[in-house]
Structures are given as C-alpha cells and as structure tokens.
Amino acid sequence: MSSSPASARDGFSSGFGVLAATLGSAVGLGNIWMFPYQTGNNGGAGFLLIYLLATLLVGLPLMIAEISLGRSARTDPVGVYRKLAPGTLWWIIGALGLVSVLLIMSFYSAVVGWVFAYVGKSVSGGILTQDRSLLEQTFGGLVSNPAAALGWQWLVLLLVGIIITFGVSRGIEAVTKRLMPLLFGLLVLVALAALMLPGAMEGVRFLFLPDFSRIDGQVLLKALGLAFFKLSLGVGSMTIYGSYFRQQQNIPRTALTVMLADLTVSMLAGLAIFPAVFALGFNPASGPALLFQTIPAVFASMPLGHLLMIVFFVLTAFAAIGAMLSLVEVPVAILHERLRIERARATWLTVLALVGLGSLSALSSSTLSHVQLGGMNLFDLFDFLSSKLLMPITGLLTCLFVLLRWKQAGFVAANSNEGALHNTGLLRAVFTILTKVTPLLILTVMLYGLL
Ligand code: PHE
Predict the structure, then answer these.
(1) Number of domains in the chain
(2) What's the complex ipTM?
(3) Neighbours of 134 (CB within 10 A)
(4) Which pTM value belongs to this model?
C-alpha cells in the first residue's frame, strides 16, 4: 500500500504492479475459455479478424479513455462522472457499469467454479484421456449437478472476498504479478503439444483462413462484445484501476501493452484448443463446454501431462480470480466511496449479493434450466445482457462523454501526464478515433446485430 500524503486512498505501488494488475483484469476466462468457444461457435478465422478490428478500433481507445478518466478523478466509477461533470446525469455511465458487473459476476463465478472442480478432477487423473464421450460426460455431469455447481461457485466467491479484504496492492498485485508469466509459458507448451497431434493443421486453418460467409450482424455483435469483455471495458473495472494508477504512469503505452499481451494469451489458447479439436474429432461449436472437453485430451498426449494439467487448471483459476478481483472492485469501491460503507463490510455485502445472483447462473443447467427468455437460459441471458447490450452502450456513452465534456484538451492533458510525455500528436489522433470512429462502429454494429 502506498497512499500518498494527499489522499488516504490505496494505490498500486510500482509501475510493474500497475501493469500486472491491469493485465490481471484483462486476462482471464475471457481468453482461455470464452475466446476459443466463441471463435468456434462463429466459424473461426472470420470472427477472429473482426474481433481484432474491434480490439484495435474500439477496445484500445476505450481502454485509454477509461483508465485516464479514473486517474483524473481518483474515485469510484460513479464518482468519476460526478466529479468531472458535477450536476449532470453522466454518472449513469458508472451505474450501468455496475449492473453489468453484477450480471457478469453471476456467470463468471459459476465458470470459475467449474475450473476449481477441474483442478480436483485433474489431481485424481480420471480426465487424463482422449476418450471423447468420457470427457463430455464428465463436464455434463458437473454442470447438471446443482450441489456441485453451487458448492464450487460459493467457494470461489468466498476466496475472492478474502483476497479483496486485504486491499488493492497487497491482495491484487501480489497474486497476479507472480503467476501471469507462468501461465504464459505453460500455454506455449500446450499449444506446441496440440500442434504436434496428427491432423492438427486443420485446426490452424480454421483459426487463420477466414470464411466470410459465416459473418452476419449477430457475429459482428458477438465479436464486439468479446472485445469489451476481454479488455474489461464498459463496466468500470478499468476506470477504478485507473484511479489507482500512479501519476507518472504512461497510460497509452500501458493500455497497448495490456491489449497485445491479452491478445497473445487468447491466440495461444486458440492454438492449444483448435488443433486438438480437429485432430481428435471434437465439435468446434460445442460452446461453453469446449475448453473443459478438449484440453484434457491435449494433456493426455503430453509427457508429464498429468502434472501439467493440474498446473494448467490452477493457473487458469488464478487468472480468473485476478479478473474477478477487478469486477468485484467496482461495487466495493462504489459502496465504500459513495455510501461510506467500510471496505471490509462493502466486500462481504457484495459477496453475499453475488452468492444469490450467481446461484441463478450456476443452476441454469439443472434446477433452473426451464427458466428461459428469448431461447436463452439465465447463464446465456446474463452474458447477452452484459456483453452484447450494456457494455457497448456504456462504451458508447463514454466516447460521448469524452467528446462533449472532457474534450480534446482534457483527454490530451490527462494522457500526456500534463504535458510531461510529449506524445500530444499521437493523443490527438487517438482522440479522433475515440470520438468519431469508435462510437460510429459501436452504434452500427449494435443496430445491425440487434435488429
Ligand atoms: N477481462 C476478463 C476476462 O477476460 C473479464 C472481465 C470483464 C473482467 C469485465 C473485468 C471486467 O476474463
């Protein structure tokens, strides 16, 4: 903890800590679980290409905007807008983000629960096999068992509560900065092993040779939603982390590094999964089950596979927790800084709310599977409402806020560290993209995808 004399707020204590924590927010199940399955569901390389464009033209500029807004106001995601635009309704951006956080946490914590369960299954070794039906049964058995799904999810939420109680720098930095490089290294190994499977090239073609016939409005919206989700945008996570950034941190450079690293992790996850999918005859469009059904089969082909599979699920669990910390930080900061509720109490109130909300997702494939809206169960509905609706809307409003209230001068001053960085030409270009290209793209894709 390195609170400056001027404020009693906690903050990240070093440049590397800032980067690690921000990366810790971005890299998580979005990369390892969601990216592969959405790419698989939406036809592979064409989807990937659109996703790349969305990351570059929407994700990166918005990440710079959110972090710098947070650092300029140094308060919670609702307070940021009350401080920078007092007496206006712009704070609704923060409130919408809060709603997204609750929806995301509901299904995210359920999936982290599955990851925890797979740590256990890896230790016992029963899933170290290339037998497809056994792997499918194992996953199906877990998600359709209400007690198991709930129990693992609640354990995850309890753990997150404990970590948050320890505060920003000690809790978040300590965990994420040590484990990220390990995860990276292991993914390289798994990808290499997957590429060595006979027939692996089919998977590489799927990932890199675009088939544009699969692209329609819905696919565009999914790619946009994934860009928001993976970079933790449109919910307030980057804004609140930005509020803990050091004054001398180079925000645009940090955002670029985070984006590139996040992309690399996703590509490695894709390279670990798709070669195996095609080599071993799995279905690339098997949805949320994809990671859990395929990755054990890759480990079954590797030397030391048993041990490495345990390490893989443990590291995935840590990456997911790093991301969850940045989600939970949003309600906690709002309760603490808006409503003056003591941090520890705010944390446990949030965890309690999430146990309730999360149970709806955890039970969506068993007890609550009959609860459907628009053909989606609760799990899919929460995902749809957050990444395909609320997050893009919040992103759009953020662009408008920068355009209409903060204006070029405010944006450039904040991101050049008040002129210390001499990068104003570049920043003016980013401002133009952020306030013209980004909002137009979000609006077009949303209208096209929803109507
Ligand atoms: N970016 C995280 C991941 O990819 C998820 C996340 C979304 C975190 C939104 C914070 C806010 O796993």
Answers:
(1) 1
(2) 0.98
(3) 14
(4) 0.94
